[in-house]
């Protein structure tokens, strides 16, 4: 699935692949967005290739949010169950776009934009982010992340303050600590070399971590 200007980026990526690899790549099932950043040439190209093109002009939501809504409709119509949805999105540049992407991660759960069991992740450059909802979590840390000297991770409250967070496996662990803006926010944390990080949180937090060469 490609979204608005992301379709143009996808097209450029495909063109750079060897021809034999291009022939093995599936076309997007869906091309969505308000189409204010995709070129007409690329849009027509994928229409002619037979991709389902859905314009989503509603400006109350971002293209990312609307894309998840259309993805869910597609899955329901075709009786497809998705366990994991992975969005590739740039995390540098405009701060409002970054915050908009985080809003979509939050809305996906709060508004049930995807199936109840579908987990949503966001890849950006060499990092991955997702929301940890109240409860206990175990995150397995890839070896390349553990061995990379500049690896980082963070725990940031989102939507509300987190009254209590307890962790193990981090360089600076938290012990029943509250996280909230204006007080403690665990950015620029790191790993202690353990194969897994355990996190218990009372409220929703955003977990982000470096994964070298993920893209």
Task: Estimate percent helicity.
Answer: 25-40%
Beta-strand percent range: 25-35%
Low-confidence stretches: none
Helices, by number, come to 6
Tell me the span between the first and last alpha carbons: 17 Å
CATH architecture of the largest domain: 3-Layer(aba) Sandwich
CATH C-level label of the largest domain: Alpha Beta
Number of structurally distinct domains: 2
What do we call the CATH homologous superfamily of the largest domain? Answer: Thiamin pyrophosphokinase, catalytic domain
| Average pLDDT score | 94
Please describe the biggest sheet, giving its number of strands, its sense, and whether it closes into a barrel.
6 strands, mixed
The radius of gyration is: 19 Å
Question: What is the overall shape?
Answer: globular
Give the helices and strands as they follow along the chain.
EHHEHEHEHEEEHEEEEEE
> Based on the structure, what is the oligomeric state of the protein chains?
single chain
The computed structural class is alpha+beta
Structure notes:
The structure is a single chain. With 215 residues, this protein is an alpha+beta fold. The chain folds into two domains: 2-125, Thiamin pyrophosphokinase, catalytic domain (Rossmann fold); 128-210, Rossmann fold (3-Layer(aba) Sandwich), CATH 3.40.50.10240. The chain has helices spanning 5-15, 19-22, 40-48, 63-77, 95-110, 143-147; strands spanning 2-3, 30-33, 52-55, 84-88, 119-124, 127-132, 135-140, 153-157, 162-168, 177-179, 186-189, 196-201, 205-210. The strands form three sheets. A six-stranded mixed beta sheet has the order 4-5-6-13-8-11, covered by helices on one side. A four-stranded antiparallel beta sheet has the order 7-12-9-10, with no helix packed on it. The longest helix has 16 residues, at 95-110.
